[in-house]
Specification:
By secondary structure, the chain is an all-alpha fold. The chain contains eight helices and no strands. It folds into two domains: 97 residues; 74 residues. Helix 3 packs across helix 4, helix 5 packs across helix 6 and helix 5 packs across helix 8.
């Protein structure tokens, strides 16, 4: 029986045997395909299932080879790229997780105001106005000054408060909470 005939009648015993061998091959390729540090065991099983789903939902119809070895090479390629895609997604998730900022402590944790904050009253008032405006650009528009002037002032305040960055973040967070409340 030809390979193409087997692939058109997937319910025949010979086609079922071929699919079982193909599934075992895909499982083996996923297990030994690398990316162990990125793709967990359960995700590897998902990848094998995804590959078989791709093959059975149109992949076998697109296969143009004539020999069983070519079919296995085709499945190997699909397995490789599917596993590689999963590993890439995991790397991207890890990078995003590393870039995610740490959450600021909430006021309920006992830090209503930061007594160590060394910003001047004028700078504090100005920052509250910026918060109320929603952005530096909107604050500049409301004040009738250039965005550059507002940006320069924000940078000056940032440099002045460089040693107390976390305290300023917490203070800004608390001010924003008060505005919303």
């Amino acid at each position: 029986m030809s390979l193409q005939h087997l692939l058109t009648d997937l319910h025949s015993p010979a086609a079922q045997e071929l699919l079982c061998r193909l599934h075992l091959y895909v499982l083996q390729r996923v297990e030994h395909g690398g990316y162990r540090d990125l793709v967990s065991t359960s995700e590897r099983e998902e990848v094998a299932g995804d590959v078989m789903l791709m093959l059975l939902s149109g992949g076998l119809e697109r296969f143009r080879g004539q020999q069983v070895g070519q079919l296995f090479a085709y499945a190997r390629s699909i397995t490789h790229y599917t596993l590689k895609d999963r590993a890439r997604r995991k790397m991207k998730e890890r990078r995003l997780e590393e870039l995610r900022p740490e959450p600021l402590p909430s006021p309920e944790e006992g830090l209503q105001d930061c007594p160590r904050l060394l910003l001047s009253e004028n700078d504090q008032r100005w920052l509250i106005e910026v918060l109320a405006a929603g952005s530096l650009a909107e604050h500049a528009r409301r004040r009738g000054v250039s965005r550059a002037a507002v940006t320069l002032k924000a940078q000056r305040i940032g440099r002045a408060a460089a040693g107390e960055k976390e305290e300023v973040k917490l203070w800004l967070h608390n001010q924003a909470e008060r505005m919303v409340a």
